[in-house]
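Reviewer has doubts. Consider these tokens.
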Amino acid sequence: MGEFSLEEAKRTFLELLEAVARHQVKKVLFDGRRLTGDPDTLERFYYGKFAADAVLQFRDRGVSPATQFAYVLKEPVLDPQRFGETVAVNRGMLVKTFDNLDYALGWLGIASANKRGGGDG
């Protein structure tokens, strides 16, 4: 939540990786739908590079390079061209960005609350 800042995004991602390492999870959902701002192309590049590099650096702490990271964002934080995603993927990170929570959960192989029953189906 709040305004996008590259430094804050990096700090938050490192905290996220600490939790991934501690709990040995293989699927991560980042819900950033309440983030605001309009990162420029250079910020998108630096974040994608930073995230991919950080995942590799955390390998010795138990973070698998096969860990899936799904980001749910809204434009303009979400880049329609997915430049930051492309930068990270090209550096070996398993990441995908979405504008829809259910699509992100589907990519992660997790059923959404809407599809687990208890409703009209």
Summary: The first strand starts at residue 2 and ends at 3. Helices lie at 6-23, 41-57, 83-90, 101-108. DSSP finds four helices and five strands in the chain. Strands lie at 2-3, 27-31, 35-36, 68-72, 94-98.
